[in-house]
Amino acid sequence: MGKRAHPCHDHCMTQAIDPDLIGIWIVQGQPQTYEVTPDGGYHVADPEEPLSFSNGGAVMTWGSLTFTRTAGTGETPVGGWTEDASGDQWAFAQDGTYTVSAGGLSDTGIWDLRDNGASLWTREKRAKITSDGAHLEFLTVYGTTSRYGYTVSNGVWRLLDPANWDELARYVSAAKLMELAGQA
User: Domain 14-45+125-183: which topology?
Assistant: First the structure.
């Protein structure tokens, strides 16, 4: 019996993520940061916002938004919250993940406290990335798939058009930016 070709030929993607993609990335001129997690999660974040608590942790002010606690206790985001103006429901888990529900839709992401707990930084999951060493496939949370070429070297990730290999975007790792800032 002869060897049969795999049914998806050369367009299959491995379920692994290139370890050089894991980390926080910046695109010059954009205020957002991008984070790739070891499980292939692709997260997008706005800058962190100031965080404070009042009424013994029953009220959280995050940036310009005020939240009322619905679950949990203490001066920590961990627990359930309702955003007062919109009614959006937020749940921050101890493991650094969160879920926000609004208008019948839910989004997930990861969160961290910064500035010794004075700022909250959230990164919304937008896609799951898989790679085969030359291509990335983004399976978005909305169910669409996009495929790109890529290179990653020395803290620079280039996203490429898979048809002609033109550069579409250039990400620079936060670690590389810190390294360059130290040389200035």
Answer: Lipocalin (2.40.128)
Q: How does DSSP assign 12-69, residue by residue?
A: ---S---GGG-EEEE-TT-S-EEEE-TT-EEEEEPPPEEEEEEGGGTEEEETTEEEEE
If 0-12 CB within 10 Å is exposed, 13-18 middle and 19+ buried, where does residue 69 land? buried
d(CA 76, CA 79): 8
- Count the neighbouring beta carbons within 10 Å of the beta carbon of residue 76: 16
pLDDT digits (tens, 9 = 90+) for 67-121: 999 999 999 999 999 999 999 999 999 999 999 999 989 999 999 999 999 999 9
Residues of the chain with CATH 2.40.128.290: 14-45+125-183
Question: CA distances (Å), 85 to each of 13, 89, 109, 158, 178, in order?
Answer: 43, 11, 21, 40, 38
**Residues 124-140 pLDDT 10s:** 999 999 999 899 999 99
Give CA–CA dist 49/90, Å, rounded. 16
